Amino acid sequence: MKTINIGLIGFGTIGVGVVKNLQRNGALISQRIGAHLHIKGIADINIKGNRGVEVDRKILTTDASKLINDPDIDIIIELIGGYEPAKAFILKALKNGKHVVTANKALLALHGEEIFQAARDAKRSVCFEASVGGGIPIIKALREGFVGNRTNSIFGIVNGTSNYILTKMTREKVSFAAALKEAQARGYAEKDPTFDVEGIDSAHKLVILASLASGQWIDFKSLLIEGITKVTDRDIEYAEELGCVVKLLAIMKEKNGLIEARVHPTLISKDNLLATINGVYNAICVEGDVVGKTMFSGRGAGQDPTSSAVISDLVDIALDITHHASNRVPSFAALSEKKKLKKMDDVESRAYLRVSASDRPGVLAKIAGILGKHQISIATVLQKEHDEKGGTVPVVMLTHKATEKHLREALQEIDRMREIKHKTVMIRMED
Predict the structure, then answer these.
(1) Residue 268 pairs with which residues in a beta bridge?
(2) Is domain 138-299 classified as CATH 3.30.360.10?
(3) Which of 33, 353, 356, 416 could form a disulfide linkage to 422, CB 3.0–4.6 angstroms apart?
């Protein structure tokens, strides 16, 4: 039986999970693939202390280059995160003729094009199942399972921290600050939660998903990115009255050769399957022109789910090595014609609007008139009782579909009205 030697860079939570689960199920994996996956070396800046898993101390090192330059190592696993030195390690490993497995979504989102070109030049594979959705096999599904489809759309809850916070706000009627504090206390949110709550982590993952789905690299800087920090418990309450919930969604759509990609809080109907995904769980809905609508759900982070995804990549590469193949189904094939990104101004969606207006006759008619002038029609209106000093009342509206440009222009004009006391809240809605 052939032995596939592996060098692991990064012996933190996920790295420990990979070693632990290879020890746990190594014999089963060998039976299934006809090859033995062997951890030959582990590199980390700290190789002291008890990680909760038994390894031979002789394979531990603080020098990652020893693994990258070892001619007997076939695969490098990069689990240190960040941009550097992770990028340098990956590029050097490829240059040295090694395959790479990584969970580094931020690196791939910003430098993926360069990394995958280096892999093509080296005739080696870069596998990244663990970069999106934890243990959910969404990368393999997009790359291989749906290879016979054009992807019409992707809607994903891909950040467990934000989903936990929104779930807690919905169920317990607490503020964003209170829900975040609870998430941090439970270890679901980092001390600095910026990447999670501002939508940046979701956007990194959307770049990967949208690039796979479209067949071309999507520029991270081209995305609209909005987080959940401005979502209030009041908006969640009003959304419920309208039969909706608020979720942070990563959205990709393709139609008529145009691609739109965005991350933002989104109102969706309670009847939508994504509305049932709560807590730290992730879910990704993919619609293909042949397969139709599909949904993948599971734990989006954590030691075991993520290490499961890393091990699935190791198995894929091991099979390539044993069968003398590489990149059987390329992640990003050269396209004869590049598709264009749709300008955000031209993107159409419904919208939830919460206007804080003085309680005076004619104000609602004036707001409706401004919306109409900008080609925005109203579907539903809720006018609430006084809840602020000074006679200000919230007016909640759901609009029919309108372009982002018209919505923004209308809100700018509405917010200039002397009867408007606070900036109007807008949350986009998807059907």
Answers:
(1) 245
(2) yes
(3) 356
pTM of the model: 0.94
Which residue from 162, 400, 336, 368 is spatially nearest to 263, judged by alpha carbons? 162
Place of tokens 């300008």: 343
Pairing of strands 99-102, 126-127: parallel
8 Å CB contact between 116 and 127: no
The whole-angstrom separation of Cα 317 and Cα 366 is 63
Domain limits, the chain: 2-135+303-322, 138-299, 347-429
Dump the DSSP string for 39-62. EEEEE-S---S--SS---GGGEES
Which residues, in sequence order, are CB contacts of 20 under 8 Å at separation 6+? 52, 53, 307
pLDDT digits (tens, 9 = 90+) for 347-368: 999 999 999 888 777 888 899 9
Dihedral angle at the C-alpha atoms of 369, 370, 373, 376, nearest 10 degrees? -90
CA–CA dist 221, 388 (Å, integer): 39
- The arrangement of secondary structure in 347-429, i.e. its CATH architecture, is 2-Layer Sandwich (3.30)
Q: Does domain 2-135+303-322 have CATH number 3.40.50.720?
A: yes
Sign of CA dihedral 134, 344, 198, 236: negative
What is the Cα 195 distance to its own chain's centre? Answer: 11
Reported as a pLDDT band with limits 50, 70 and 90, residue 300 is confident
d(CA 82, CA 102): 11
Residues marked active site are found at 205
